[in-house]
Amino acid sequence: MKLKVVVHKAEEGGYWAEVPAVPGCFTQGETWEELLNNIYEAVEACLSVDTEEIELKPHDEVLQIAV
After folding, report:
1. pTM exceeding 0.85
2. Cα 42 to Cα 52: distance, rounded to the nearest angstrom
3. SS3 12
4. With CB atoms counted within 10 Å of each terminal CB, which end of the chain scores lower, N or C?
């Protein structure tokens, strides 16, 4: 999966980034390297779903796909 990330320079220093394709997915970092690490963590957190919170019926199935 490829996602576009918009990176902004923060007024107080450092950077902040948003992932337009994933609503509510934002992160920040004091350095470029920190920002890059945080982007991966933020996207993973925003896209992860805890299936334990979803009520599944006996015939329901959970699939994992790569896009």
Report:
1. no
2. 21
3. coil
4. C
What are 7's strand-pairing partners?
17
Residue 14 is encoded by which pair of tokens?
């450092």
Structure tokens at 12: 């107080």
Token pair for residue 52?
Answer: 């334990």
Residue 55 pairs in a beta bridge with none
Q: What Å distances lie between residue 54 and 25, 48, 61, 63, 65, CA to CA?
A: 22, 13, 11, 14, 18
Alpha-carbon 33 to chain mean position: 17
Per-residue pLDDT of 24-36, as tens digits, reads 999 999 999 999 9
Are 38 and 28 contacting, i.e. CB atoms less than 8 angstroms apart? yes
Is 26 within 8 Å of 18 (Cβ atoms)?
Answer: yes
